[in-house]
Structure formats: C-alpha cells, structure tokens
Design brief:
Largest sheet: 6 strands, mixed
Distance between the termini: 21 Å
CATH class: Mainly Beta
CATH topology: Hypothetical Protein Aq_1857, Chain: A
Radius of gyration: 14 Å
Number of strands: 9
Length: 109
C-alpha cells in the first residue's frame, strides 16, 4: 500500500486568509486541480464553501479544502502565499508536477 501525504499549508497562506477575512465570511480557500491549461492540468484556487468529502486543513482559525478528485494530484504539495513584483497570489509547490508553465498555474505529471 502506497503512503500518500496530504498537502500542507504554510503559515503565510493561513495569515493571508486571515487578512482577507475568509473565515469571517464563512469561506475556505479551495485548491482544486482541473484538466486544461497549457501544460495539461491547472490549479483552480478560489474562496468557497467546504463540501462533504473535502479534505479540511485548518490553521490560525482559517480553513483550506481540497476535493477528493484533486487530492491525488496534490500529494505532498505545499500551498503557500507569494508576494512578488508581478503580484501577490496563492501558489502550489507541487512535487508531483514534472513541468509547469511560466504563469505557475498550469502543470503536467
């Protein structure tokens, strides 16, 4: 049986969720993987309501959820928040991705 590690969420990502008041709005950060994008798969990161069957990751009073279909693609990944000259955004550092595009939202396995 293969051991699968759930994704982790950085303190910086939880702190950013607190800054934007996600929990105050009753929302969680949803990290999903969809087919498409220039490299085969793309991340869909939104504020959303948790659903039954979601993996729930909590920290600092904030919540990040991942649906069952996306979970295998995010094994061992780190969900983080990045502030760069090009902008601030939630990012996924995914050890399963063999390639990614320049925008960082599309990847292949």
């Amino acid at each position: 049986m293969e051991l699968t590690l759930p994704p982790k969420v950085s303190e910086r990502a939880f702190a950013r969720l607190a800054e934007i008041g996600a929990a105050d709005q009753g929302k969680a950060l949803r990290v999903a993987v969809d087919g498409g994008g220039c490299s085969g798969f793309q991340y869909d990161i939104t504020l959303d309501d948790p659903s039954e069957g979601d993996l729930v990751l909590e920290g600092g009073g904030e919540t990040v959820v991942v649906d069952e279909v996306s979970l295998p693609f995010l094994t061992g990944a780190l969900i983080d928040f990045s502030e760069e000259l090009i902008g601030a955004r939630f990012v996924v550092n995914n050890p399963n991705a063999t390639a990614s595009c320049g925008c960082g939202t599309s990847f292949s396995i």
